[in-house]
Structures are given as structure tokens and as C-alpha cells.
Specification:
six-stranded parallel beta sheet; about 25% strand; disordered C terminus; eight-stranded mixed beta sheet; 16 strands; alpha/beta; 10 helices
């Protein structure tokens, strides 16, 4: 099979496709023929910095998610030819991931998918939409009565959360660092847009004086305290992302920094269940949601896909579609 293998940290231009044996099936694992997969920031970081860390099992095929069909069900509950998605749980880090024509996955990390979406669109769903869906349902307990603020709305998870939040009936407000991206957020479904920056707290409360009942914090520690202060009484803030590249709060005093009657939680996307995936896919279907795909590449264009992923300002998910013969197509 064709696959991309990382042996050490490297530049995007160093990525190339190699020939290697199709993985041998073993009990408790299933073989998936990969139809498509999304490119994630964690995979860029793996290539740039993390591959040399001792907990990464080199050489490794990267890729934390994919969609495809069961090629060999082994002793699993699946059927050969069944449409599935796979994500997380050490994929592309502890064992080989999705940057290949076939991937061997633990049965527990594989989920049946009932959807009429194309493989390209499905590839934009697993990690991105599950992170957004889990944050909204499990952590924020979002309902149609809520006013949802999404900080980091133009990120892939932010765009997914806008679409899912609207499908759940909530009023959705999203943030962006650039006024020129506001129309994109509105086109995706946001009811309101607030630009990040100076006096955000004052400007947000000027437009929404009652505050947000639920806040999906994707920027992270850099704006977390500000988000807590604009949350309504009995509202919830879910810390899910780290887009601001600030990974902790120095001298954080929960008693002083978390307003009385406001709740702070987080979401970790490493343990999805079939029930959650089924519920998420039903909501996507019911809401008529189509993931925002920024660009599509073939496997042999993996270097170009990673080069694009390193650039700022891209709106939507980068997808690798195994059916493409060569040329990329921007959307």
C-alpha cells in the first residue's frame, strides 16, 4: 500500500509517499480501507516538534482520524464493506494512523456511519465535529433556550460548533480576530459576530447585556477569565481549545476568577462512543449540515496539504481524498 511515514521531525516539503505492506489483521483490531482523512493541527505539530519525543513510536504513519470501509472485520462486530469512521485513542502516535491506503485500528476506536455525505465531506467530520458536539452536549448541555458564544469561531471546531449549535436551536454568537471574516461566520449560521481585541468584554456586554448562557472557549487560557466574566448567572464555560497558544494560567485563583454561580468545565475528545457518534450524525443529517472544506488533496500531495495547513487564515478543513489522482482543488 501507499503510505506517508515519519521517521523524525521534518519540514512539510520532506513528506513523501512510500510503499509498505498492508497491515496484518489481529484479534480485536479491524482493517479499514481509507477513503479520505482530514489534516489536523496536532499532525502538523507532530511533524514539526513532537516526533522526536520518546513517547512517539517511530517510525510512525501520522493521522488521528479517517473515514472508509471495513476491508477485514477480523473478530469484530462490523461487516466487511461497512462504512465507518475512526479517530483518536493513540491513532497516528502510539500506532500507525490514517495517512495511508489502509489502517489497522482497535475495534473500540471504530464507529459505524450512516450518512449520505460524500467521502470528502465525511472526512471533515470525525475529530472536528465530535470535539464540537461533545463540548456542546456533554459539557455545555446546550439547549434551544441558550445564547451560545463561540470564541474562535473561524477555527474548524468553531465552524462546526456554529452549525451544530444552530441545528440545536440556540442563538449563536461567534468571534473572529478579523472583521473581514465576519460574513463567513454569518454565512455558516452565526446570529451575531464580535471581533476579538481591545475591550472585548465591554463591547460584548454592550451588544448582549445579559451575557452568554454558554461559552465554548476555543482560544483557551488567553481569554478564559474574560469569558468567565461575560457568562450569565448559572451559565457554563467549556474550555476545549488552545488557539491562543497560552497553555496555562499563572497563579489562577478559582475563588476569585470564577464568578459566583458560573460553572467552568472542559472537554477531552479521546473517548467517543457509538451512541455519541450516532447522535451526532443524526443531528448533522437533521440540520442539513455540510462541513466547510477549505481544500482537497490527493495522498501524493501530502506535502502541499501540510504546507497549506501551516498558513494562517484558512477557513475550513483540509481533506485528503484517496480517490483523487493528483491535482488539488481549492474551495
Amino acid at each position: 500500500m501507499k503510505a506517508v511515514v515519519i521517521e523524525k521531525t521534518c519540514k512539510a516539503s520532506d513528506l513523501q509517499v512510500s510503499d509498505m505492506p498492508v497491515p496484518e489483521v489481529k484479534p480485536g483490531w479491524v482493517l479499514i480501507k481509507v477513503k479520505a482523512f482530514g489534516i489536523n493541527h496536532s499532525e502538523v505539530l507532530l511533524r514539526q516538534f513532537e516526533a522526536d519525543r520518546p513517547y512517539i513510536h517511530l517510525p510512525i504513519i501520522p493521522g488521528i482520524e479517517c473515514v472508509g470501509v471495513i476491508a477485514d472485520k477480523s473478530d469484530s462486530r462490523f461487516q466487511n464493506g461497512e462504512r465507518v469512521m475512526a479517530l483518536m485513542g493513540g491513532m497516528g502516535r502510539s500506532f500507525n494512523g490514517s495517512y495511508a491506503e489502509y489502517v489497522l485500528m482497535p475495534e473500540s476506536h471504530v464507529f459505524s456511519v450512516d450518512s449520505s455525505l460524500s467521502w470528502e465531506e465525511l472526512a471533515a467530520i470525525p475529530e472536528t465535529f465530535y470535539t464540537a458536539y461533545g463540548s456542546l452536549t456533554q459539557s455545555l448541555q446546550l439547549s434551544a433556550a441558550d445564547t451560545l458564544l463561540i470564541r474562535g469561531g473561524t477555527s474548524t471546531v468553531g465552524l462546526a460548533a456554529i452549525q451544530l449549535g444552530k441545528a440545536m436551536g440556540a442563538m449563536v454568537i461567534a468571534t473572529t480576530r478579523s472583521e473581514r471574516k465576519a460574513d463567513i461566520l454569518r454565512q455558516t449560521g452565526a446570529d451575531g459576530v464580535v471581533v476579538e481585541g481591545n475591550e472585548f468584554h465591554r463591547r460584548f456586554l454592550r451588544d448582549y447585556p445579559e451575557g452568554a448562557t454558554k461559552v465554548l472557549e476555543l482560544i483557551g487560557a488567553a481569554t478564559l477569565i474574560d469569558s468567565l466574566r461575560i457568562t450569565a448567572l448559572h451559565g457554563i464555560v467549556c474550555h476545549t481549545g488552545l488557539l491562543g497558544n497560552v497553555f496555562s494560567l499563572k497563579d489562577f485563583d478559582p475563588i476569585k476568577e470564577i464568578p459566583s454561580g458560573v460553572y467552568l468545565t472542559g472537554f477531552y475528545s479521546n473517548r467517543p462512543t457509538q451512541r455519541q457518534i450516532d447522535s451526532m450524525m443524526k443531528l448533522i443529517d437533521k440540520g442539513g449540515i455540510h462541513p466547510v472544506v477549505a481544500a482537497t488533496f490527493s495522498l501524493k500531495e501530502i506535502a502541499a496539504a501540510h504546507e497549506l495547513a501551516e498558513k494562517r487564515g484558512l477557513i475550513g478543513k483540509i481533506v485528503v481524498d484517496q480517490s483523487l489522482s493528483g491535482s488539488s482543488s481549492d474551495r
